[in-house]
Amino acid sequence: MCDDGSVAGAAQAVPRQALGEAVDPIALEPVDEVEVTTLVDNVYDALLVGDERARRPGFTVGSADAPQFEGGRTAVGLVAEHGFAALVTVRRGPTTTTLLFDTGLSPDALVVNADRLGVDLTAIQGVVLSHGHFDHAGGLAGLARRLGPARMPMVVHPRAWTRRRLSVPGREPDELPTLSPRALDGEGFALLERREPSLLVDGSVLLTGEVDRTTEFERGMPPAHQAWTGTAWEHDPLVVDDQALVVHLRGRGLVVLTGCGHAGAVNIVRHARRLTGVPRLHALLGGLHLGGPWFEPVIGPTVTALTELDPALVVPGHCTGWRAQHALAAALPGAWSQGSSGSAFRLVAPAA
């Protein structure tokens, strides 16, 4: 697929609408419990209150030197930045496995927040990158320093290495930081490049691969988002490396975690349902990329479609945007929950 490396080739190769059941359905093993801990998000709210689904960090989760206070110390919270990272822990029977999904924007925020939350990053068993944008991969530098020379498996789409830029009319183009597979290999990551759906953790975690684009309203990135074809910069609306992580919570339905949701939240959920044959969406968490003028017309139909799916939990984060947050909270008041750096969402299968 799109072996010529061009944006035009990628557009031709992206999955088209496919109705009915998947030709090669994924046998996703149900799990008994899944917990998603947001290690990095755009927001940190120390006053959020936990409930039966969400565990919130305390008002202070650490301390730092500060000579202007008596005793020379002050309390600190967690780092919030325009990025996303989540720790995903799944339990099936007696077996528990933890993956890291994205790593945030800056080299240090992931590690700082993990330390303040008491998360041992050396205990993770693999890394998944939702796509190649730098606000999801910047924390790999700090993670590599923490892991040392250990070979950590990392699943990534082969187009995550694409050079991209923002070319806004009237301004100089701004080229985005581009991931280097050679550098990541040198830092100890064992890269697994996959375009197709990938089953991880003994078949109980699904990485979607390239997502079928089946809605009429999720139109991708604006013209300013461009990719280098090898000879020229061209509009890159699809971000074909965008993937989501999916878990089947026994007796409840699918738990879907997105990084930015560039393929469209509804496209992603449809794709996951079709691949797995599981009709019920139990939870949707992560970035939904509905902020800004280009995406605001998509909010209405997205909210309508998600309302019809009737999930039990919706935790929009990162690039969702405040207008979409308000719309989702109003339409799904029982399901919507505020995302924040440090929040953990624990979902459990019904008792057998």
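Above is the first protein from milestone M3; the second protein from the same milestone is given next.
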Amino acid sequence: MNDLGGSGRPESAGRRTLLLAHPSADLYGSDRVFLETVEAFVRDGADVVVTMPADGPLSPLLVERGAQVRIVPTLVLRKRLLTPRGFGELVSQTVRGLRAGGRLMREVQPDLVWTNTITIPLWTALARLRRLPSVVHVHEAEGSAKPIVMRALAFPLLFADRLIANSSYSAKTLERSYARLAARTTVVLNGVPGPSEVTAPRTDVLDELRVLFVGRLSPRKGPDLVIEAVDELNRRGIDARADIVGAVYPGYEWFEDELRASITARDLTDRVTLLGFQPTPWPALAASDVLVVPSRLDEPFGNTAVESILAARPVVVSDTSGLREAAAGYRAASFVTPGDAVAIADALAEIQSDWAARSAAALDDERIAADRHSVRAYQDRIIESVDGLPLRPRGAERVDA
């Protein structure tokens, strides 16, 4: 068990201690939202302890926000574990996680357990065993999954006192699994901080259209569709290039190899660049003309789409699930059929041909998004979300177990 930013149980007299569990130390959508959640509770005067199963780039940022970070093994649900071949690992991770989590709970003695995503269910179970109030912040929405899978993933949520869903789509997906979850679910749209300074779109895009993808490199997220769309545009005589920002999950290196092979086979090595993981999307967005969010499957929300709008860039998004909700109401957003590279190319061609109007709309949309996804408003709603839970009164002494 590793400690970052302090060790042991917080000792601040009269302050509540909150244990926040998160499944990774990356810097993608839900990770960045988690930073704002942590800051909300720190700002409210709580001692915040964050537990994650591994160290990574998120860790120092959490410490900067005022949290103590504890690296503790836990079960993180992955698809490979939910198979007969993965059953043994599922059991061993569960046993190890329960033991390590129990030790941490005894050391920290939290007043509340906040689990960030449904992929780390053991923390909700441990909270129930210790009769502690618990909240789960749901960032997933497997609406297209088989009903039995949806119910299995949602089952641990029945033991949480409250649920926070990051979109109406996520909340409805939970309700489809277990109707009784609706009464304890509140929708809080993600707080998404924009760039420190907005770089205005280019005056024209006559030389080339600069396309951007930001996200995990996985078949689900569809970066291969961006490569195909750029190829299609160039076949039509429209100069286009693409930067692809993101990295693969461990074990998905084969997909990155496929992307590189596709770029080579299509003779796009001078037009498509894999930039790897970037700690912030803003430089890439500032250098781009339009962002594409081409997810093939359901998404609970669409942080990346919102980031494009906050950067005053037109965005092309799959017309599905939470992406539809995230980009709704923005004039610079175009919606396309999921999985259709030609439709993406059509949307990009239309944006290029109507650039003056689209870029002006993007500047107007930026102001709307900055208000709709205000970080301060998000943090206020997160603090409100624990109102009424049986937490230790402020100023009360902690009784050691």
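Note on the second protein: The mean pLDDT is 91.
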